[in-house]
Amino acid sequence: xxxxxxxxxxxxxxxxxxxxxxxxxxxxxxxxxxxxxxxxxxxxxxxxxxxxxxxxxxxxxxxxxxxxxxxxxxxxxxxxxxxxxxxxxxxxxxxxxxxxxxxxxxxxxxxxxxxxxxxxxxxxxxxxxxxxxxxxxxxxxxxxxxxxxxxxxxxxxxxxxxxxxxxxxxxxxxxxxxxxxxxxxxxxxxxxxxxxxxxxxxxxxxxxxxxxxxxxxxxxxxxxxxxxxxxxxxxxxxxxxxxxxxxxxxxxxxxxxxxxxxxxxxxxxxxxxxxxxxxxxxxxxxxxxxxxxxxxxxxxxxxxxxxxxxxxxxxxxxxxxxxxxxxxxxxxxxxxxxxxxxxxxxxxxxxxxxxxxxxxxxxxxxxxxxxxxxxxxxxxxxxxxxxxxxxxxxxxxxxxxxxxxxxxxxxxxxxxxxxxxxxxxxxxxxxxxxxxxxxxxxxxxxxxxxxxxxxxxxxxxxxxxxxxxxxxxxxxxxxxxxxxxxxxxxxxxxxxxxxxxxxxxxxxxxxxxxxxxxxxxxxxxxxxxxxxxxxxxxxxxxxxxxxxxxxxxxxxxxxxxxxxxxxxxxxxxxxxxxxxxxxxxxxxxxxxxxxxxxxxxxxxxxxxxxxxxxxxxxxxx
Amino acid sequence: xxxxxxxxxxxxxxxxxxxxxxxxxxxxxxxxxxxxxxxxxxxxxxxxxxxxxxxxxxxxxxxxxxxxxxxxxxxxxxxxxxxxxxxxxxxxxxxxxxxxxxxxxxxxxxxxxxxxxxxxxxxxxxxxxxxxxxxxxxxxxxxxxxxxxxxxxxxxxxxxxxxxxxxxxxxxxxxxxxxxxxxxxxxxxxxxxxxxxxxxxxxxxxxxxxxxxxxxxxxxxxxxxxxxxxxxxxxxxxxxxxxxxxxxxxxxxxxxxxxxxxxxxxxxxxxx
Lengths: 621, 272
What we know:
The complex is a heterodimer.
Chain A lengths: L1 E2 L10 H11 L5 E4 L25 H18 L1 E2 L5 E2 L1 E6 L15 H15 L5 E6 L5 E9 H9 L11 H11 L4 E6 L13 E6 L5 E11 L6 E10 L4 E9 L2 E10 L4 E8 L5 E7 L10 E5 L6 E6 L7 H10 L3 E3 L7 E5 L11 E5 L6 H6 L1 E3 L4 E2 L16 E4 L6 E7 L2 E7 L5 E5 L13 H15 L3 E2 L3 E3 L4 E4 L15 E6 L14 E2 L5 E4 L6 E7 L2 E9 L3 H4 L6 E4 L10 E2 L5 H28 L1
Parallel strand pairs in A: 5-6, 5-8, 8-9, 17-18, 17-19, 19-20, 20-26, 28-34
Antiparallel strand pairs in A: 1-3, 4-36, 6-7, 9-35, 10-11, 11-14, 12-13, 12-15, 15-16, 21-23, 22-24, 24-25, 25-26, 27-29, 29-32, 30-31, 30-33, 33-34
Helix pairs in contact in A: 1-2, 2-10, 6-8
Chain B lengths: L1 E3 L8 E22 L11 H7 L3 E11 L1 E6 L8 H20 L5 E5 L7 E3 L17 H6 L9 E7 L7 H9 L2 E10 L1 H4 L5 E7 L5 E6 L1 H24 L2 E7 L3 H10 L5 E3 L1
Parallel strand pairs in B: 4-5, 4-7, 7-8, 8-11
Antiparallel strand pairs in B: 1-12, 2-3, 5-6, 9-10
Helix pairs in contact in B: 4-6
């Protein structure tokens, strides 16, 4: 037995003190009298030479001794070395969706892992503790640290593995750190880690997986033709099993079946499925049904119908301008572009001779010549390169300028930041000092072969797509689990004053059309910035973003992970850590301290009762 | 002022102020008898001889100075309170001095453990102030050992608390033997006469050291007083048989009250 506070053992001195008090203390005050025989009581004759009396074993003495002993125990805080050492099981739970795959016996790896943990904890010494950590990009402590198994078991009952394949090391690192104070680390998974995979030696691996067949939707995409508004759904379905499978693919929008197809898949075969759907459906839930489909997470996808984000472009060029034809030619083939006037345009393509008005919502491309006077035109230079490109600028993505003659280059005398330059000449630059996103193309397309090169439509399209991306609202509507989600809340860097103060939130949407696919209404708040970032989600389904009472948009998150959908490699197994890396015993505070304290209070109550209640009655009797 | 309340019956003693039982030389006429040779011719009643022609001798009552033995119990039981010791000393001295005023030579016997018992003479009464009450023996045992050389026909005054275990009849008989007068003066302190309820108390006999735990409540006290009264009544009964006078005094009331209330009512003292 050990004592956390050995000085408390000085309290044992109270025991002989109490005994001495009872030995020498005369309970009744003495009174010298003459004629004791007249009192008629039984007279005791003290032994000559002895003052000490025989110790009376009274109820009061026993209670006082017990109280002193318990008080000493409370002060000394005893620890029984064997019973104080208990098991601290630090279980790292693989939160991969494959743990939810159900086999023929209707049990999943998750169920077997829970049963294994329960078995270990029931076999552990009384008072043992458990810590449960879920793997993931950021490990989550499901229960703990070091809680009683009853508490951990409640948390464990809510565990539903859903994640795609991810790194397990963060969770294991956390477990190993917790084990430094004592504890055994066990990793509960459904596939043994490869030998060359980094893995802490202190951890035991318990794999409870089994090889299963599975049918998975490995990819899904929904596009919309902006002209006809007809939707097009593209799917890929894979048979992750050793046997052929007949798969029924069904698309539903709310209660209505939008499409249904049947696929015959050979073992490990992956087939695409494409189908047109009507515009305006909003949401679509696609599911696959097959006889041997073990994992539900990859058998259903939720898709949100993409919104057409049209960019209005104004071509404000004189008809005799050398850029008119090349610009119109590119705009005619650019998707989701609408020709408009300058006042309502998102992008204005105009002559470089006249600088644009300062408008935050306007993008402006000024096409040269910068000065159309004869002298300036004559003084312009034609360049063959080399061209210096700002590679990080998204405008130049895919632009090579190979063999391009950059003709009609004139000196630029206003403040500008180069995007493409040749020597000291600014060929494509961003103008400074204006709220308009203004680009100056220092060129005379009549003296250049750029319009005939592939770089011209790429450059214009990049400009339009950049402008499209800068429009408020969602740019994408369908995401994978744990994928970063971004959207623009407002144009520019500063939010208009009339919108500030509103609450920006998003929450799962319950799709009433599919009772098996019900998301929980769990609203979360987002920071109001120009570009809003939604943290990677580990929950599939439909989500809606609200700005105050306005709906910003909807998006869907789906499980797409071919590697995780492949259940054929799952195996059971066990790998023990080396003996010298095994966890140490875990010490817990004495759980009986409160029991001792309670006993102490009870005994003190009894002692006081004995002194003040029982005593006089007994004496009077 | 008080004087000893001696009874009417004659007592023996030296010639003195008190009348003795025998015939003496006092002026108080007692009776006539015929002259016998050797009689003091000064006591011949010549008138009677003239009337009856016989020699008659006038006999006068003998005037004596009575003998007194004061027995002071110096056992520890007398020291249960200062007042008890004080009044015991005062009574011893008072009786001795009263006897001394009659011309007697009283003795104050210190009845304790010593055999024979030491005595204090009249001229040394101041020694009583230093008498310790430390004896462990009982008066009954001491009398059995004949520790006190009683004077015959003496006035015997016993000052004690009489709380030692004894048989009253035997004690009174021994004390009354050959005494002309026996006064038993029981001195108690107020607690011994009227104990007060004080809850649990360990009573320790001051002489034997025996002890007992009692709960001093009204019931226990009433039982004690019943036993004390029974002892006093039995002592009084035997006193009557031996013409002795018992009296109980409460030490805490003081000597004056003791004389006025106790000793005078018992006619041991008379106001002079």
